[in-house]
C-alpha cells in the first residue's frame, strides 16, 4: 500500500528539483523529507533517488511512479468534486493569484462579481509572479492563477496542471506626449529604432518579448533605463528619458504626459489561466473562469 503522504514528498522533490527545496516547501527538515522517500522506496522495493554530483536525481522507477502520482492527484480532485456533486452552487474558499497587471483589471473585478453572485463563496486574491504561481498551485495554496506564457513554464502537456489560453495582451509603444510620433494613430517599431529605450530587467519575461519585437522590426533597442513596474516605466517616459513598450493590460497613472500608440505587427504576450489538473470542474473554479472570460473583452480594449 503506497503512503500518499510519502508520495507527495517525492512529487515535491521532482517539482522543486532538490530534497532541500522540497522540504522547505513542505515545512519539513531535509532529513525528514529524505526519510519519507527512503521509507517509500522500502515499501515499494525500488530505488527512487540516486546520486548525481553533490545532489540526487530521480531514478527511472521514480519517474514512472510520478506519472501515476500525477494521475492520482487529478483523480483526487475529481473525487472531491464527485463528493460534492449535489452542491452545484459555488461555495467555500477560492484562492486566486496572478501577475500584478492581472489583479486590477481581471482578478479584482472577478472577485467582486463572484461575491455579489454567490454569497457562500469566499474569494481571496494574491499577487504572484510566474514561478510562484505554479509552486502555489502545486502546493494546494492556490486554486487558480493567471500567468504569462514563457519558455520557462511547465509545458502545456504537464499532467499536473490545466493551462488554458485567456487573452493576447498587446504591447503599445509609449512615448512622451510631445514626441514627433505621438500624433500618429499607428506606428512601426522601426520608427523608434534610434530612440533611447526603457525596458524591464533581463530576468523579466517581458524583456524577451520586447527585444524579440524590436528584433523583428530590424533593430536592437538601446536600453538606457530599467524598471520592474510599468508605472515606473511610464513616469520615465513622461520625463522624456526614452520610449517603451508597455502591455495594454497595464493600468498607468492617469494624466501623465504620455501617448500610447498601437504598433504595426501586433507585438503581444499571451496570458493563460492555470489550475491543478482536475480542479477546473469545481463549481467555484468554473465560475471564476467564466467571469475571467467575460472580463477579457474589455480588459485590453
Summarize the structure in words.
The protein has helices at residues 4-16, 19-26, 30-44, 60-83, 102-117, 130-138, 205-216, 230-238, 283-299; strands at 49-52, 55-58, 92-98, 121-127, 144-148, 161-176, 186-187, 196-199, 222-226, 244-247, 258-263, 268-276. It has 301 residues and is α/β, with parallel strands linked by helices. The strands form 3 sheets. Strands 3, 4, 5, 6, 7, 10, 11 and 12 form an 8-stranded mixed β-sheet that branches. Helix 5 (102-117) links the parallel strand 3 (92-98) and strand 4 (121-127). Helix 1 (4-16) packs across helix 2. The longest helix has 24 residues, at 60-83.
How would you state the average pLDDT, rounded? 90
Overall spatial form: globular
User: How far is the N terminus from the C terminus?
Assistant: 55 Å
Q: Which regions are unreliable across 5 or more consecutive residues at pLDDT < 50?
A: none
For the largest beta-sheet, the strand count, sense and barrel status come to:
8 strands, mixed
How much β-strand is present in the residues?
Answer: 15-25%
Strand count: 12
Which assembly state applies to the chains in this document? Answer: single chain
Task: List the total number of helices.
Answer: 9
Task: Sketch the topology as an H/E string, one letter per element.
Answer: HHHEEHEHEHEEEEHEHEEEH
Topology:
Elements: H1 4-16, H2 19-26, H3 30-44, E1 49-52, E2 55-58, H4 60-83, E3 92-98, H5 102-117, E4 121-127, H6 130-138, E5 144-148, E6 161-176, E7 186-187, E8 196-199, H7 205-216, E9 222-226, H8 230-238, E10 244-247, E11 258-263, E12 268-276, H9 283-299
Parallel strand pairs: 3-4, 3-5, 7-11, 8-9
Antiparallel strand pairs: 1-2, 5-12, 6-10, 6-11, 6-12
Helix pairs in contact: 1-2, 1-3, 1-4, 2-3, 5-9
Amino acid at each position: 500500500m503506497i503512503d500518499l503522504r510519502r508520495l507527495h514528498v517525492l512529487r515535491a522533490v521532482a517539482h522543486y528539483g532538490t530534497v532541500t527545496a522540497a522540504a522547505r516547501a513542505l515545512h519539513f527538515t531535509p532529513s525528514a523529507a529524505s526519510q519519507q522517500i527512503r521509507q517509500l522506496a522500502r515499501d515499494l522495493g525500488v530505488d527512487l533517488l540516486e546520486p548525481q554530483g553533490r545532489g540526487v536525481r530521480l531514478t527511472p522507477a521514480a519517474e514512472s511512479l510520478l506519472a501515476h502520482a500525477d494521475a492520482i492527484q487529478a483523480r483526487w480532485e475529481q473525487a472531491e468534486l464527485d463528493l460534492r456533486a449535489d452542491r452545484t452552487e459555488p461555495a467555500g474558499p477560492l484562492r486566486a493569484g496572478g501577475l500584478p497587471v492581472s489583479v486590477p483589471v481581471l482578478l479584482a473585478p472577478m472577485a467582486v462579481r463572484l461575491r455579489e453572485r454567490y454569497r457562500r463563496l469566499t474569494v481571496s486574491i494574491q499577487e504572484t509572479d510566474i514561478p510562484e504561481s505554479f509552486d502555489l498551485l502545486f502546493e494546494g495554496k492556490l486554486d487558480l492563477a493567471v500567468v504569462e506564457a514563457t519558455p520557462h513554464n511547465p509545458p502545456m502537456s504537464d499532467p499536473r496542471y490545466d493551462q488554458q489560453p485567456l487573452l493576447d495582451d498587446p504591447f503599445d509603444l509609449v512615448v512622451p506626449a510631445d514626441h514627433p510620433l505621438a500624433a500618429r494613430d499607428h506606428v512601426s517599431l522601426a520608427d523608434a529604432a534610434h530612440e533611447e529605450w526603457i525596458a524591464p530587467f533581463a530576468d523579466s519575461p517581458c524583456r524577451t518579448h520586447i527585444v524579440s519585437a524590436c528584433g523583428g522590426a530590424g533593430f536592437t533597442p538601446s536600453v538606457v533605463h530599467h524598471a520592474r513596474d510599468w508605472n515606473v516605466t511610464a513616469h520615465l517616459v513622461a520625463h522624456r528619458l526614452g520610449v517603451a513598450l508597455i502591455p495594454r493590460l497595464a493600468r498607468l497613472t492617469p494624466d501623465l504626459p504620455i501617448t500610447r500608440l498601437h504598433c504595426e505587427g501586433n507585438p503581444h504576450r499571451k496570458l493563460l489561466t492555470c489550475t491543478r489538473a482536475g480542479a477546473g470542474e469545481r463549481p467555484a473554479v468554473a465560475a471564476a473562469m467564466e467571469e475571467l472570460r467575460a472580463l477579457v473583452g474589455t480588459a485590453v480594449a
